[in-house]
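User: Can you model how adenosine-5'-triphosphate sits in this protein?
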Amino acid sequence: MPPAPPSTPILATRGLVSGYDGSRVLHGVDIAIPEGGVLALLGRNGVGKSTLINTIMGLVRPMAGSVTVAGQEVAGARPDRIAKLGVGLVPQGRRVYGPLTVAEHLDISDRSGRQGAWTRERVIDLLPRLGERMRNRGDQLSGGEQQMLAIARALLTNPTILLLDEPSDGLAPAIVQQVGEVVREVCAAGMTVLVVEQNLRLALSVADHVVVMQKGAVHWDVSVDEFRRNRTRAEELLGI
Ligand SMILES: Nc1ncnc2c1ncn2[C@@H]1O[C@H](COP(=O)(O)OP(=O)(O)OP(=O)(O)O)[C@@H](O)[C@H]1O
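Assistant: Here's the modeled complex, given as structure tokens:
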């Protein structure tokens, strides 16, 4: 029997070059995630992790290279088109609007997102604290609650691929653990995930694959098991 053809990754970049005002931050990045895969994107500050996520989402315009979602080329497409193809973003810094209530945030995602299995009931079931805070404004929420809201908002758009940019940033250790549990549940539900995360323990607890970036390029692309076996190299690359 001939060997089965390699399955098309659901999210892939090839030779992706991107940056700001003509200056390059990404110098030809190749990543590929199979359906249901969870990739942790690691690297020191400023290597271009957020730039990669924002370029995939269409928020930063690529200068060259390709981004494909389920085989469809989307490099240079607008963020709303990329979202419609099933890419959801939990942005760095959460981007919660102070004057809007939790319910109003969720209404916006409900209206603008795709229909699917992530209903409001399911999302509140996953994030019960938000259910208790429905009438509270964004600026009345703790950092952890804002992060939960950012995750809820993205899930309500029913993505098939979720991009998470530093979900544990600035949170107390107990809250980091809660965020980790939520991310693990979302992954266990079969979501394809690309997560940028400084908290190595959290990153390795959710991911099956690791990409370490250096200076705008992929430096190391390995399974989590291989990463754990090369602890010294990992520490050297990440400066920990
Ligand atoms: N909006 C922007 N305009 C101009 N330069 C930017 C912008 N955003 C990021 N940069 C620059 O691009 C480079 C990569 O930043 P990026 O945020 O992608 O890195 P990162 O790996 O996500 O780092 P961190 O962990 O600090 O968030 C940095 O030199 C940064 O100053």
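A couple of observations from the model: The radius of gyration is 18 Å. The first helix runs from residue 49 to 56.
User: Helpful, thanks.
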